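Q: How would the structure tokens look for this protein?
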Amino acid sequence: MKLIIATIKPFKLEEVREALTEIGVRGMMVTEIKGFGSQSGHTEIYRGAEYAVNFVPKIKLEIAVSSAMADQVVDTITATAKTGKIGDGKIFVLDISQAVRVRTGETNEDAL
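A: Here is the predicted structure in token form.
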């Protein structure tokens, strides 16, 4: 089993969710986050004063899938979330050693 953690631009969330649902992803966790990478933030003007915005709003997706499905999920997120501009995000893939569905007690891939 794999845990896929992806950061994407907020306006891409619905498009990515729809694409993942189409390939069979049955669930995900979504968190609104702030961060920076190559963008290194930017400056904005508010009421005539310029100030630095060091953290940019992002969406973090956490998706647990079978190992066989991981590459397809990564490819789908990459293709759907890409705008071609800086700040499109990152994807990390980690191993999951155990999963348990609390309601039924199912374990590992049955719990996904």
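The domain at 2-111 is CATH 3.30.70.120 (Alpha-Beta Plaits).

The chain has a mean pLDDT of 91.

Upvote if useful.
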